[in-house]
Amino acid sequence: MNKLRVIIADDERPAREFLKSILRKFENVEIVGEAENGADAVELIKSLKPDLALLDLKMPEMSGIDAVRLLRRSQLPQVAFVTAHDEFAVQAFELNAVDYLLKPVEHLRLAETIKRAVERLERDDWRSVESEKLRRVADVYDDAGRRELIDRIPVRQRDEILLVPVREVAAIVADGELLHITTVARKKYVINYRLKDLELRLDPSDFVRLSRGTIVNLSMITTIHPMPGGTYLVTLKNGEQHSSSRLQSRILRDRLLHI
Questions:
Q1: Which residue segments constitute the domains of the chain, with CATH numbers given?
Q2: N or C: which terminus of the chain has fewer CB atoms within 10 Å of its end residue's CB?
Q3: Among 148, 9, 131, 37, which residue's Cα sits nearest to residue 88?
């Protein structure tokens, strides 16, 4: 019997190692690749053609759902999203019968996912069925996420909590588990939060990710300067400058630089 060929995508190395340690216990599974972001996961899927992709739901620059959206139906493997407990995500997955795994992933639950993937692959129409399920779950999850958008960011300073209006935020830069927030008035704040989690709470029509560790307010951008290698240097109204990654530079071109 052929082994189930699996790839893993998660931006946190310990999470990937933990998942691999469990997968190695299954004799009918072969781990063929791993990625630390959505963009690399898309390329792995295209080149390796795995049977099953275990995709972290929330990854910097490109989420698991965003990665799936970039694949044509003919390129689509079986997909199971891996996530910390997320009420809206779980509801969306269960409503549309899309497989998911809650962190920390349990052996028995992963065994169920593998069993279902093997069974589905035996059906001739599995790609068509799964593609429609994933399309629906993406729409439902997007709608749920939009209902949780915030307009203020709470920042603790000594014995009080400041509420920083999102519209005044110029940039948010990650430094480990800390986020450095700067405003158009050049005020600076630090909060303990993950960038990919905060990004989900910001209106995507107002903010854009420049790189793995930087998000900026679109209304604060004054100039975009092309750099060697197809990247950009972005200048904000408060004088800050931030570089865009190669992946996000393509998104910037499509979103801002075309009339």
A1: 4-146 (3.40.50.2300), 152-256 (2.40.50.1020)
A2: C
A3: 148
